[in-house]
């Protein structure tokens, strides 16, 4: 994240407003990925709209960030394919890291995945083999 923001700021004009604007695309990319992966979906149609809108925002942010970083990498002496490939590794890492961290936390509270996980842990009314009773009898 820091590398992407720094490269975007280096590409900007030397004034605070330009630098603040340049810092936004990688932040927008991270925020959209985080929102899509963390916020549970309760209505399918709204979930689809959210994913489409977030994907559009993330694509725009990634495209802008990519071009800022290509300019910076080329300005500081890299040649050939390096200026074009290096930005993919930096901004791509933001997406991979965000999705990977989401996977370590488990499902968001109240999500469908949580309900399914609770059921599989035995909080349902299934027959309990060791006592011969059901969950409702306990």
What do these coordinates show?
The protein has helices at 2-11, 16-38, 44-75, 82-105, 112-123, and strands spanning 127-128, 133-134. It has a two-stranded antiparallel ribbon with strand order 1-2. With 138 residues, it is mostly helical. It is 73% helix and 3% strand. The model has no long low-confidence stretch (mean pLDDT 78). It is built from 5 helices and 2 strands; from the N terminus they run αααααββ.
| Overall pLDDT confidence | 78
Strand order of the largest sheet: 1-2
The span between the termini is 51 Å
> How would you classify the quaternary structure?
single chain
* Outline type: elongated
Provide a count of the helices: 5
Q: What would you report as the Rg, rounded to the nearest angstrom?
A: 22 Å
Percentage beta strand: under 5%
Helix content: over 70%
The count of β-strands is: 2
Order of helices and strands: HHHHHEE
Residue runs with pLDDT of under 50 for 5 or more positions: none
- Largest sheet composition: 2 strands, antiparallel
State the secondary-structure class.
mainly alpha
